[in-house]
Amino acid sequence: xxxxxxxxxxxxxxxxxxxxxxxxxxxxxxxxxxxxxxxxxxxxxxxxxxxxxxxxxxxxxxxxxxxxxxxxxxxxxxxxxxxxxxxxxxxxxxxxxxxxxxxxxxxxxxxxxxxxxxxxxxxxxxxxxxxxxxxxxxxxxxxxxxxxxxxxxxxxxxxxxxxxxxxxxxxxxxxxxxxxxxxxxxxxxxxxxxxxxxxxxxxxxxxxxxxxxxxxxxx
Length: 219
Fold this sequence. Notes:
By secondary structure, the protein is an alpha+beta fold. It contains eight helices and ten strands. The chain has a domain at 9-91 and 101-113 and 154-206: VC0467-like, CATH 3.40.1740. Strands 1, 2, 3, 4, 5, 6, 7, 8, 9 and 10 form a ten-stranded mixed β-sheet that branches. The chain is globular and about 45 Å long.
């Protein structure tokens, strides 16, 4: 996948996140652009349909946070790093946030910080109602200072990016399937099961894919 324009900045400790992302092969990269722009997929989830074996994106669920003429930006929701947030992010965060799992948002710029913030009322929501995406460490620290039980934060290292028209082309080639995004899915308490859970809702064909082995050669 190509890199889209983003304000994501580098904050993570390199020796932590570089090793995590080093195996992120992106075997289906296509650098061309589609001639026809499709409807924006912002706030939608896109899922591997079982075609991305051997890729970083194998069995991933990605929230599309931005999709326009300049490209697309997404965050993988269901790939946790082996590290906690406090292991990789050097910042004075509350223990409750430091102890959260760090998620691998994608293979692009693995030291770049992104986060999703959910609250009962988020006036600056920019992805879904009451869901905002940010990249600023200062803003994350402000959120942490006023953190309350009705809020949730999910922190990512790296992201998935597409050049202009690239995601549109991948959709036309059935690389991905879509599913409506929701706060419940973004903060699903069992993200490791999210891909299978959504696929089982898509009919018998996809239920078989969801319940199949990681590597089809194991059959």
